[in-house]
Amino acid sequence: MKRVIAAAAILSTFAGSIALAQGKVPFPVKARQGQMATMAMSLGVLGGMAQGKTEYDAAAAQAAANSLAGIAMIDPDILWQDGTAEGTASLPAIWDDADAFAAEWAKFVAGAEKAVAEAGTGKDALGPILGAVGGTCKSCHTSFRAK
Ligand code: HEC
After folding, report:
1. Which residue puts its alpha carbon closest to atom 7 of ligand 1?
2. Residue 141 alpha carbon to ligand 1 centre in Å
3. What one-character DSSP code corresponds to residue 90?
4. Which numbered atom of ligand 1 lies nearest the CA of 133?
């Protein structure tokens, strides 16, 4: 997580200092928490269909998978910038063991790619997708998110 895009860092330092002065949550923290919420909602759409709470709808399943894939394209270095751990559920291990965190993120990316390829093909595809993507949520949270 040492590599930070200069322009983004300057922008967020600026935005962050304004935000802190106003007692608000810094941009990168807001962004990663919003990203996580969007991941949870997208997975929830697929989970609801898998459990039969909502009827399987290929277009809606594909749209939820596309949302996961869109998030998977966001560079985690932008979201977990140096100095943004305090007061959040992000554990210091994210920065101290950046390679392991990157490996967890890569598992999510692979799960999202599976979802994009298969979510629209039928209800039976959803179980394996939930296993692949949902497993990465749990696995990363175990090591890198405060309880
Ligand atoms: C590569 C690691 C990683 C993966 C993969 C991951 N998370 Fe997270 N998640 C985190 C971290 C770290 C936080 C704490 C963020 C913070 O507060 O700074 C978090 C926080 C959250 C939160 C709380 C957000 C808030 O408003 O505070 C939710 C909800 C969440 N994750 C859902 C998910 C779901 C659902 C998935 C899988 C689809 C997932 N996460 C995958 C690392 C991960």
Report:
1. 137
2. 7
3. B
4. 38
Which residue owns the Cα nearest ligand 1 atom 2? 140
Domains of the chain: 6-144 (1.20.120.10)
Checking if the pLDDT of 6 tops 90, the result is no
Mutate to test the pocket of ligand 1, among 84, 96, 141, 144 (most ligand atoms within 8 A of CB): 141
Average pLDDT, the chain: 90
**pLDDT tens figures, 50-76:** 999 999 999 999 999 999 999 999 999
CB 42 within 8 A of CB 64: yes
Residue 2 has phi, psi (to 5 degrees) of: -75, -35
**91 φ/ψ sector (left φ>0, alpha ψ -120 to 50, else beta):** beta
3-state DSSP helix/strand/coil % of the chain, to nearest 5: 75, 0, 25
Q: How far apart are CA 40 and CA 51, in angstroms?
A: 16
Number of separate helices (H) and strands (E) present in the chain: 7, 0
141 lines ligand 1 (CB under 6 A): yes
